[in-house]
Amino acid sequence: MTEPETNTPDSLSLGEVDGVVDFAASEAESETAPTPLLADVAGRFPDVGYEVSHEQEVVIVGVDTLLELAEWLRGDQHFDMCVDVTAVDYLDHWDRSMGTWQGERTRFEVVVNLLDLGLGGDGGRRPRRLRLRVPVDEEECRCPSLAFVWPLADPAEREIYDLFGIVFDGHPDLTRILMPDDWEGHPLRKDYGVSRIPVTFRGDRERPAPEGGAERG
Amino acid sequence: MFLPGETHRVELTRERGIVTDVPEGTEENLSAPEDETMIINMGPQHPSTHGVLRLMLELDGEEILRVKPVIGYLHTGMEKTAEELLYIQGSTNVTRMDYMNPLGNELCFSLAVERLLGIEVPERAQAIRVLMAELCRINSHLVWFATSGMDLGATTVMIHGLRERELILRFFEKTSGLRMNCDYVRPGGVAADLPDGWVEDVAEIIEVIPRRLHESRDLLDDNPIFQKRMRGVGILTRDEAIALGATGPILRATGLAWDIRKAFPYSGYDRYEFDIPTQEGCDAWSRYQVRVAEVNESARIIRQVIETMPPGDYRVQDRKVTPPPRHRIDVSMEALIHHFKLFTEGFKVPAGETYVAIESPKGELGCYLVSDGVPPAYRQHTRGLCFYHVHAMPSMMVGGLVADAVVVIASADPVLGEVDR
Fold this sequence. Notes:
The complex is a heterodimer. Helix content of chain A is 18%, strand content 20%. Chain A is an alpha/beta fold. In chain A, the strands form two sheets. Chain A has a five-stranded mixed β-sheet with strand order 1-2-5-4-3. Chain A has a two-stranded parallel ribbon with strand order 6-7. The N and C termini of chain A lie far apart (45 Å).
């Protein structure tokens, strides 16, 4: 690793007992000074949260502000490339014990990793990364699509829809991408069992079961 | 000023209307194409699709009007599996994603775990990792060279590429015991020190491979058929590449010297001197040139690694992360306990989330890792760069010929194990 982390205040010591979360330590870290970029974001969008997680800048933004923030980041801040979009199901950790940020607590979170290649502007800028974490409500399970801001989000959001069941409003073609089209359930959800999947073959359902034969699966 | 959205909006409109959920063989479900066009499936068992990729092509004669990649045939739920595995087992899981770059996958995962742990591996471990990652880069490019040659009908090149690669696989086997999917780079360092005589082995590799690759290139570079099939085919401009998340040789073939090893150095890459090869053509030919030049740059890095390999430990000496040496177990109770604990319940990684990216042979390979403080990773997501490259293919194919689709697939170099994960 090139950037040795001398102090990671939110780290539990290695020998600590399972599951005990040090909230005092978490709150202490959230008071660290924001970086210029985070201060900029917070100044323009007052209702977003931010934190520095392992020397990486993270912005926590609600679904209502996401599109506006995304357009601004791409246009004004030169985050030309969206590197990756993924999601996390925090079913077991609604309190977000893994982060320092203690704002809105929802079951899902869409995670957008952005990259500024350092191209635009007057040149000579350092490349930067920024991560957006978007809390997504369990009942609504909707999030605006970023496919028209960063086209890469198109396949990535299909994957999230497929594996988590989060619906992206405004997505041009929201269909399953990895699982079969007639699959039931969303496998990467935490409440999706890992050992109950029967082997299925397309078209098998119409076929009558073999006489006295063993059941498939 | 880049306006990626604008470029892609056109693409999306073009694509819309393609029906995706058509069971194979049921013609009537297809959206009625105009009289002159037809939709054909290329794959999933097409020999040039490098695995099980299916492309739905809408054709007007030989011209491609629209393309829809259909993936998932190799989906085995590796990210779900990762949520059941200890961190020490995690390398075994990720190494199977991009099986042309197994050690790069392990490196990316290990760096993410180490970032959450807040440890830095010893210099020797970093140098070994660089050595292995660069060998993997040569390995990946050689396989690309071989298979894409075969896709274009140059079967001799395929034999040459695979022959050269054998040298590297033999070295991997000597080092880790396995030819592919080595599980060699692990959180905390590497699994074992380099074997005796590694300097001679590696020196032979970097002497033989660039020389032979140069010979093999004689078969292709001046070959008018090969040139005609590669030049000006599969154009992806810089704006489009950035918008669609195409990285690695595809992005460098648009003239942009973007390399994560330079931009965000990791594992001590800033200690080595190397250049970023670029080309301006934006086409398959440029990607070919970039990849071949990268083999030489990798050999250059490896030469520096051989010269400067530091002595010391090959893994971090922290008993909470690294198992104790075998001989200590016989004499020390603590060593025995540590060993037992490490392999039964695994080491704990502090709660947190992070994203780590490395420059794999094909582009930006990323690992998003969430830990809740107890051993199985709460979420481990791999940025499948081939996943995005497959979805950049339509932009490269539209307007070209069916025969050029083969060239586009070859030049994008997808590994379906990583696309589907």
